[in-house]
Amino acid sequence: MTTANKTVLLTGDSPLYAELHQIMTDSGYRVVTLAEGAAEPESIFLAVEVNNLDLTAKQEQLCELDRMLSPSVPILTTSLAITATEAASWTQSPERICGFGTLVPLAERALFEVAPALQTESDVLEAVQSFFHSLGKEVEIVEDEVGLVFPRILTLIINEAAFTVMEKAATPEDIDTAMKKGTNYPYGPLEWADRIGLDEIYAISRGLHRDLSEERYRTAPLLRKLVLAKRYGVRSGIGFYSYREAGGGEG
Question: How distant, in Å, are the alpha carbons of 115, 121, 197 from that of 155?
């Protein structure tokens, strides 16, 4: 895909926003906000929406994109906290909606997962794959399920670790050391969560429980409390490793 004169509209409040903006700019795309795109909708060839925690904002922004842009313009939406099929059902042109998922930091993610909604047309899926390839990323097509594959598996591990901390069975340091040495993970689960953003992990966990209604997907209350207190990890300066020193309890 040539990137000459290509304008992408990027909207949302996920930690993915800043890193996607950077990688798209570095790849030669012109990136505009929702307000800027509204002033020149005819220049946009693709839109990307990345709300995960606030599903009301997600619905509002997807519907705004759907109203503003030509029906031929693909709209990518994160399907970490909700399926692409449900997100597409909010719009008047659901056939141009396609889900995707990844986690920050993007420098460590060679692959993006793409999950077409049941409504997604084949030419939209092809355009999405081509777009991510133009960013230097591999693409894997996966089923349209909340959290997709890697984000879902990692979230379940992190959530279980959060329960362990909350129940005072082990400290964050003990859990991360045991996991790194026992599984050869690059990070312990709680260190990983702090780097990704606890709001992202919580959004996925909440979405899994909302969609599947199974006890094994119930979010650890400690994780929920940290997000409510805006203690998101590295981004906010307080996460699993420092919430106690900052005045937090054990959950």
Answer: 18, 30, 11
Q: What angle do CA 177, 178, 179 make, to 5 degrees?
A: 95
**What is the C-alpha separation between 246 and 211, in angstroms, rounded?**
33
Q: Half-sphere exposure of residue 85, counting CA atoms within 13 Å on the CB side?
A: 9
Which residue in 137, 153, 162, 172 sits closest to 222, CA to CA? 162
Q: Phi/psi at 18 (nearest 5 deg)?
A: -65, -40
The model's pTM is 0.93
SS (H, E, C) the chain: CCCCCCEEEEECCCCHHHHHHHHHHHCCCEEECHHHHHHCHHHEEEEEECCCCCHHHHHHHHHHHHHHCCCCCCEEEECCCCCHHHHHHCCCCHHHEEEEECCCCHHHCCEEEEEECCCCCHHHHHHHHHHHHHCCCEEEECCCCCCCCHHHHHHHHHHHHHHHHHCCCCCHHHHHHHHHHHHCCCCCHHHHHHHHCHHHHHHHHHHHHHHHCCHHHCCCHHHHHHHHCCCCECCCCECCCCCCCCCCCCC
Confidence of residue 184 (pLDDT cuts 50, 70, 90): confident
Mean per-residue pLDDT, 223-251? 80
- Other Cβ atoms within 10 Å of 34 Cβ, number: 16
Confidence of residue 243 (pLDDT cuts 50, 70, 90): low
Place of tokens 């879902």: 152
Percent of the chain past pLDDT 90, that is, above it, reads: 92
Instruction: Please give the mean pLDDT across all residues of the chain.
Output: 94
- Rounded CA gap, 195 and 189, in Å? 10
